[in-house]
Amino acid sequence: MTPVLDVQGLAYAYPDGHQALFGVDLHVHQGERVALLGPNGAGKTTLVLHLNGILTAGAGSVSVSGLPVGKEHLREIRRRVGVVFQDPDDQLFLGSVRQDVAFGPANLGVRGAELDARVMTALDQVGMADYADRPPHHLSFGQRRRVAVATVLAMQPEVLVLDEPSSNLDPASRRELADILRSLDVTVLMVTHDLPYALELCPRSVVLSDGVVVADGATYDVLTDDTLMAAHRLELPFGFDPRTVVRTPH
Fold it and tell me: Membrane topology for this entry (predicted)?
């Protein structure tokens, strides 16, 4: 079965010569929810920017459902891989929630009733349909993050990539977003420092450190491997022990 995301031997150096990735392999299959963990400077963001063609591989390859990521397929790749950035204000820039969510599909040529349906379906999925005509800057931070997710869902992506989705959220907003992400029928790759959130949402975790994959397995196994955690500067919050968490089926 072809992985939805297939990264093979990916290496990348920035123009200043800094080598960020050294031969990364990553395979994510349809319907998986995978956490991408690692210390600051590990290369996580660099890897994510290759998944929809913002950066181009120096060596190795990236493909999405068998389609190589490259200039000739960029439009379709960016439909298939939706990236939700850490700051929702990077994605919300129009006068109303409805306009922001419509922006992506409209650029793909979706019009009229189909566009309206896409917008409202995406807003329904994140519990924000009642806010369609509100200006985004009048919403709370948590609401803006949910609208940012909707702007990507309206593109009907195959993969949802989330960069630090729980950052700056209050506990209620954090839980609401977790419920939304669990309900979506889409493959998820979640970049996060929030290890309890990774345990809650992602059955599988991949650890990136110094530009290479150093672990790939069940999130519980990764978070309870004390030697691995210490070696790669991964720290659980004070008082949080994965061994005592009651885990529900995903």
Answer: Peripheral membrane protein
pTM: 0.91
CA 24 to chain centre: 18
Q: Which residues of the chain have pLDDT under 70?
A: 246-250
Q: Which residues have CB under 8 Å from 122's CB, separation 6+? A: 101, 150, 151, 153, 154
Distances (CA, A) of 29 to 66, 84, 162: 12, 19, 16
Domains and CATH numbers, the chain: 5-87+158-244 (3.40.50.300)
